[in-house]
Design brief:
Elements lengths: L14 E2 L4 E2 L6 H5 L1 H13 L5 E9 L5 H10 L13 E10 L2 E10 L6 H8 L4 E7 L3 H5 L1 H11 L5 E7 L11 H11 L2 E4 L8 H17 L9 H8 L9
Parallel strand pairs: 3-5, 3-6, 6-7, 7-8
Antiparallel strand pairs: 1-2, 4-5
Helix pairs in contact: 8-9
Bound molecules: guanosine-5'-triphosphate (GTP) and magnesium ion.
The site of guanosine-5'-triphosphate has 21 residues, from helix 3.
Length: 247
Amino acid sequence: MGKDKTLNANGTDFRQNGGGQAGGGMNGHSSFQGNSHLHRQASRQCSSELYDLSCKVMLIGDSGVGKTCLLVRFKDGTFLSGSFISTVGIDFRNKVVEVDGSKVKLQIWDTAGQERFRSITHAYYRDAHALLLLYDVTNKNSFDNIRAWLAEINEYAQEDVVIMLLGNKCDVAGERQLRREDGEKLAKEYGVAFMETSAKTGMNVELAFMAVARDLKMKKTRKPDEPQFNVAEYVDQEKTTSQCCSS
Ligand SMILES: Nc1nc2c(ncn2[C@@H]2O[C@H](COP(=O)(O)OP(=O)(O)OP(=O)(O)O)[C@@H](O)[C@H]2O)c(=O)[nH]1
Ligand SMILES: [Mg+2]
């Protein structure tokens, strides 16, 4: 998809010092000071970029599941290991990708998983085209909380929002607490797309965002007699299944 060529040069750095330190750009206290400021900044960046379609994607899930790392992997192609610093409030990054000749701009909102920021993030659900809901395959608690996250989505998001359940950190074989089948079963129950990802190795990260971009493009260009695009089926066909992780 020519990702480097279509990268936007917007950009606040999520982390300073190159070592997993959060707090760069708006990911420090400034994002917490005013949502309207952040919205204005996002809109300004939108207007100066060339794209055919634009959509908002939100990353949600418990603190520590890897939301920020997933976004950094997608945007910059790197993994920020080192000490874990929690996101404060909410932050965003843009990336333009190409789907069948159309440029789709993804405005990706990275939310804080910590409970104390929950009321801030609620306001952002309404505008989201897609929600990437993460749990950590090495943390059962983060998986058990997925039902609560889905209830929250039900309450605050648009009815036709695209939901993708992502079991992140699938590179960690030894400390795994959840089987791939656990995620598949839950996703099936709720009728949402599912795959395991790794921000560390990059497994399925690009696919998660590209599937969202493709869904938007299909929604906008689909003719009445054409079948609807099914994100869950699409990711099932395209995803990589880690051999090390199944049991
Ligand atoms: N092994 C492995 N570690 C990961 C992966 N993704 C994230 N991590 C680690 O998990 C920790 C938390 O990652 P973050 O991306 O900051 O978590 P978060 O979901 O943004 O957390 P909050 O901002 O508090 O909501 C960091 O120490 C990361 O290095 C992954 O795919 N594999
Ligand atoms: Mg974070």
